């Protein structure tokens, strides 16, 4: 990270310099650390420029000119998502920055960093990578500008783009550049995108640049003919004989009829699909939705074809996705000599993203859930890449023995999804040819192996290690898979839940769930039944915390009202709510932008998706999730009256919010927060401006409480301490071991 370190190592220059928008944390959860260690293992000298001041080129020259290339990444998050909320408000913090300070990276960091690298050393190749590059590799809808932007490769003027987890690709490219091959000639590496002007010889191009093909052309009828008069109709029929004219030469005996044979099967390795151009998708929303659908159909490494999209006079060429890493390769990547700590230059300053994963272990990559609002699939793929049990256990032991501050608790054994470890298609041939966007929607595929035995064995061995007191599971759980293996649910609930377990049904209504590709609420109910059963058998006090999304495409006001009623009936008060965030390239973002559903064939007459786009409607949908907050009651009353649902306004048990009462404006609902000092948990409901506690639901003492009498909070999953205004006695509750964020 500095010239002083280079001098200590005896380096006169770096072979490769990685520029990143995150603080440098040498941990396998941080992309720049993984790529840096991989290249180091190949013998390259790697420098890291982390969170440089982008206002001039000078910080980009701190390590000198790299011998091979600059590797540029915005960080572990898309820089726009990192800097702005779903309401487009700038965040004041940044979890990937020392001290949680915001503003240490620019908007569209990949573009800015690339520009500064080019200013610093114009002749050095620039290779883009990371999730920002992955999600913006083709023309994409940009939520912050409300328009379709060009491929990031065009705007960054970079030489090559790597998408996905690109260990294999970056190693091959580094060796080829080191051997003297021009970067412009490297066009055959999977998982890369580049700019070219023509289709090379020997390739077959499939035109998928439009959605509607011309049909039969009907002859124009004479507008002056009265078709009720039969005689005139007969005249018209005689006049159309020329339309049925047949060339007499076609009947010559010496002529041979031309016969067309079915097209020969194309070689996938030499086939490219042409998407609608940037100019077309930026003006035609239907063509945008079509292009997004084609891209998602070409994501299986076993059968994906190359894609090409014209931008002006040039083409963006996207090679098929990378072949998933094998278990030995995954073990190699995670077995590299990571320090597992932030760089010493930060002086021990707290980096929240590191604190979150400090004592966690990533056991796999990828997700075959296919949730339309999620970007994991576009980046890591649908095929699960697993580490061996031995590799995972070694990492747990390294944490125990080497990481300062370890208290015996592993905070997570997981990944993108907690319980997809070792789950895969039963038949590799079927897996290689499958084009389904999800293995678990609309139901679990019959070809999917759902046996959690390997995961249960891993859990048992990890928690039996000396010095390990507890192993928690904090990654999101796919509960529709878990219920197929009740023994796994029992193992999880009995040993690996720290007071609460978060899962994400996302909604209760079929309309939005079908657009999310999520299971119905019945799967949640079944998991809840098993969770409570095994919790009771274990003699523990543990709670399920469901997460929900507001304003997702396909969600109506009525759907959000029904969700709010479900929340009240089940006694949930959401302290933190998540509004749909249109990330680049996600299928749900396409629904948001185009009002079309790319999960099905897209035409100009295909299904229209209802979407909450206006700030007012998005605010209303969030208000339904926080039905218990007095400041939302005026908005909800107005909306429910307009919906004709006034019967749900009142003090009854089956009504959502109370009638207006004098002094209501004074009520302030304060979220339940975990105290940093002493670990004390409190439930704060309805405080007037005077500071004296009052009841938020200002009608009945038990209004809004479930029949069981406990109100769970989304933030902790634990019932609140009983207070005098609830008429109960204080009841001790177990404390969660950690805080989980969405």
From TrEMBL:
Coiled coil: none
Keywords of this entry: 4Fe-4S, Iron, Iron-sulfur, Metal-binding, S-adenosyl-L-methionine
Region (Disordered) residue spans: 674-742
Residues involved in [4Fe-4S] cluster binding: 367, 371, 374
Domain (Radical SAM core) ranges: 353-625
Domain of life, source organism: Bacteria
Protein's UniProt keywords contain Metal-binding: yes
Cited SMART domains: Elp3
Co-factor: note: Binds 1 [4Fe-4S] cluster. The cluster is coordinated with 3 cysteines and an exchangeable S-adenosyl-L-methionine.
Biased composition (Basic residues): 732-742
InterPro entries named in the record: Elp3/MiaA/NifB-like_rSAM, Methylthiotransferase_CS, rSAM, rSAM_horseshoe, rSAM_sf, UPF0313, UPF0313_C, UPF0313_N
Cofactor(s) in the UniProt record: [4Fe-4S] cluster
Family to which the UniProt record says this protein belongs: Belongs to the UPF0313 family.
Matches recorded under NCBIfam families: SAM_YgiQ
Name of the protein in its database record: YgiQ family radical SAM protein
């Amino acid at each position: 990270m500095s010239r002083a370190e280079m001098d200590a190592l005896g380096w006169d220059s770096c072979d490769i310099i990685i520029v990143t928008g995150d603080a440098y944390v040498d941990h396998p959860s941080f992309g720049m650390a993984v790529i840096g260690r991989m290249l180091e293992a190949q013998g390259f000298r790697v420098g890291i420029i982390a969170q440089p001041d982008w206002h001039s080129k000078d910080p980009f020259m701190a390590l000198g000119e790299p011998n091979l290339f600059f590797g540029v990444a915005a960080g572990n998050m898309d820089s726009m998502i990192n800097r702005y909320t779903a309401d487009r408000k700038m965040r004041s913090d940044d979890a990937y920055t020392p001290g949680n300070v915001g503003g240490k990276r620019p908007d569209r960091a990949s573009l800015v960093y690339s520009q500064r690298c080019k200013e610093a050393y114009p002749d050095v190749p620039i290779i883009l990578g990371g999730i920002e590059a992955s999600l913006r590799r083709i023309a994409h809808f940009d939520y912050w500008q409300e328009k379709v932007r060009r491929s990031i490769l065009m705007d960054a003027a970079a030489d090559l783009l790597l998408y996905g987890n690109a260990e294999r690709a970056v190693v091959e490219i580094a060796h080829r550049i080191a051997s003297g091959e021009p970067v412009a000639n490297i066009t055959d590496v999977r998982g890369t995108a580049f700019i070219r002007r023509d289709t090379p010889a020997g390739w077959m191009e499939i035109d998928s640049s439009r959605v509607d093909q011309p049909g039969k052309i009907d002859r124009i009828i004479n507008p002056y003919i009265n078709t009720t008069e039969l005689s005139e109709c007969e005249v018209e029929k005689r006049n159309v004989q020329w339309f049925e004219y047949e060339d007499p030469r076609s009947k010559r005996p010496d002529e041979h009829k031309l016969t067309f044979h079915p097209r020969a099967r194309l070689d996938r390795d030499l086939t490219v699909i042409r998407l609608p151009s940037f100019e077309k998708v930026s003006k035609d929303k239907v063509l945008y939705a079509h292009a997004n659908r084609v891209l998602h159909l070409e994501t299986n490494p076993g059968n994906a074809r190359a894609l090409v999209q014209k931008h002006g006079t040039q083409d963006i060429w996207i090679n098929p996705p990378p072949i998933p890493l094998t278990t030995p390769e995954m073990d190699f990547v995670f077995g590299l000599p990571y320090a597992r700590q932030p760089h010493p230059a930060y002086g021990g300053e707290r980096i929240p993203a590191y604190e979150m994963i400090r004592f966690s272990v990533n056991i796999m990559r990828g997700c075959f859930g296919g949730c339309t609002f999620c970007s994991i699939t576009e980046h890591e793929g649908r095929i699960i890449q697993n580490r061996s049990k031995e590799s995972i256990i070694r990492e747990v032991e390294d944490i125990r023995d080497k990481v300062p501050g370890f208290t015996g608790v592993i905070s997570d054994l997981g990944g993108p999804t907690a319980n997809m470890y070792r789950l895969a298609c039963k038949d590799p041939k079927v897996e290689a040819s499958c084009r389904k966007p999800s293995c678990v929607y609309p139901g679990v595929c019959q070809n999917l192996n759902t046996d959690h035995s390997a995961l249960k064995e891993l859990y048992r061995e990890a928690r039996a290690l000396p010095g390990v007191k507890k192993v928690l599971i904090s990654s999101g759980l796919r509960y529709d898979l878990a219920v197929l293996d009740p023994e796994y649910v029992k193992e999880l609930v009995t040993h690996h839940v720290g007071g609460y377990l978060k899962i994400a049904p996302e909604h209760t209504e079929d309309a939005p769930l079908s657009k999310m590709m999520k299971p119905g609420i019945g799967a949640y109910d079944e998991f809840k039944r098993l969770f409570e059963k095994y919790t009771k058998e274990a003699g523990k006090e543990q709670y399920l915390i469901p997460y929900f999304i507001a304003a997702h495409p396909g969600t109506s006001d009525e759907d959000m009202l029904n969700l709010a009623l479900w929340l009240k009936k089940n006694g949930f008060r959401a302290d933190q709510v998540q509004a749909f965030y249109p990330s680049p390239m996600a299928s749900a973002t396409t629904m948001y932008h185009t009002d079309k559903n790319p999960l099905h064939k897209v035409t100009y007459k295909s299904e229209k998706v209802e979407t909450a786009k206006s700030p007012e409607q998005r605010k209303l949908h969030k208000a339904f999730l926080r039905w218990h907050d007095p400041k939302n009651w005026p908005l909800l009353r107005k909306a429910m009256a307009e919906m004709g649902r006034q019967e749900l306004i009142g003090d009854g048990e089956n009504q959502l919010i109370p009638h207006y009462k004098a002094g209501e404006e004074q009520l302030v609902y304060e979220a339940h927060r975990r105290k940093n000092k002493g670990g004390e948990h409190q439930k704060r409901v309805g405080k007037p401006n005077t500071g004296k506690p009052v009841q938020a639901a200002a009608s009945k003492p038990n209004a809004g409480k479930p029949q069981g009498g406990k109100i769970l909070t989304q933030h902790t999953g634990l019932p609140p301490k009983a207070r005098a205004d609830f008429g109960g006695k204080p009841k001790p509750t177990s404390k969660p071991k950690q805080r989980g964020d969405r």
